[in-house]
């Protein structure tokens, strides 16, 4: 059953081409959607409209039975039930972690505010840092405070606008695991906007791809991986190797195997790169000007030699131009 709905959203800034072109998305209660799109595809605009902070030209946002009004329709823009967390979160610099988290609860009963803050501090592993000022925290810890603050009002929906893009990968992985667990426990419905698919995959397998203001594919991670609608979606997951003499057919590096004997597709290893999980071979396919990326998990193959390759035929992708 859908809970948070964006229906036929259309948005154009002044004379520009549409930034959002008939975007429809619906999320079930507690669902976390990863929204992937390149820079300028309209992700932030969509989130701001979803939060009631930007006025759309057409279309409707609903949360359960509530129609989310745009700033053009509502005196004070935005809703307590729908919180937006930005990359440039703004913590109050002279307030402690605990005070920052309690800040949206100023009008609430003090005992409730303290109880809610304690719960969130514990959930995000911030209890020991509660008396620190924001400048005494790492970037990741500050971002967790911003997310905990957004959760203080018990919102139904949390919208994340690339909140971790400035963090380094190990820090990010750990935080994504913590955030996923916290969101699951609180049963929050969310949209996680990113241009980095691997971030989204750490959190959810429910994905949508936004390209030039249109949702070009929506589905599970497996669905998008195995049946991408076009190269754009396919290349979010890996590079693509074109098949010789087979227009529009591609194979992912992970579906190519180096054979111990001859009999497969012959190639010449031009370069070997050491990557964390395998060596990546750059292989020129014999008799063509095609170059493939091929993983060598054995790390035994040297440059400047021939190899015989086998592809998994079931994994061949047929994609439009
Ligand atoms: N207030 C505005 N006035 C005019 N044009 C705008 C405004 N805000 C955004 N745009 C334009 O709308 C398009 C989409 O912007 P938006 O910020 O929604 O994209 P995005 O996918 O979030 O990009 P990024 O990943 O770089 O943040 C861009 O071309 C941008 O220049």
Description of the molecule:
- One of its GO terms (molecular function) is ATP binding.
- Residues 4-237 form the ABC transporter domain.
- Keywords: ATP-binding, Cell inner membrane, Cell membrane, Membrane, Nucleotide-binding, Translocase, Transport.
- The protein is an alpha+beta fold and 321 residues long.
- It has 2 domains: 2-232, Rossmann fold; 239-318, OB fold (Dihydrolipoamide Acetyltransferase, E2P).
- It is 25% helix and 32% strand.
- Strand 1 and strand 2 (20-28) form a beta hairpin.
- The two termini are 36 Å apart.
- The mean pLDDT is 93.
- The chain binds adenosine-5'-triphosphate.
- Residues 13, 19, 37, 39-45, 195 line the site of adenosine-5'-triphosphate.
Produce the secondary structure layout.
Elements: E1 2-11, E2 20-28, E3 32-37, H1 43-50, E4 58-63, E5 66-68, E6 82-85, H2 97-102, H3 110-123, H4 139-151, E7 157-161, H5 169-186, E8 189-194, H6 197-203, E9 206-211, E10 214-220, H7 221-226, H8 231-237, E11 241-242, E12 249-251, E13 256-259, E14 265-274, E15 279-285, E16 291-296, E17 306-311, E18 317-318
Features of the shown structure:
single chain, 321 residues, Rossmann fold, OB fold (Dihydrolipoamide Acetyltransferase, E2P), six-stranded mixed sheet, five-stranded antiparallel sheet, 18 strands, binds adenosine-5'-triphosphate, transport, ATP hydrolysis activity
The CATH topology label of the largest domain is Rossmann fold
The helix/strand order is: EEEHEEEHHHEHEHEEHHEEEEEEEE
Low-pLDDT segments: none
The main sheet comes to: 6 strands, mixed
SS field, number of helical segments: 8
Helix content: 10-25%
GO molecular function: ATP binding; ATP hydrolysis activity
Pfam family, one: ABC_tran
Organism: Lunatimonas lonarensis
Keywords: ATP-binding, Cell inner membrane, Cell membrane, Membrane, Nucleotide-binding, Translocase, Transport
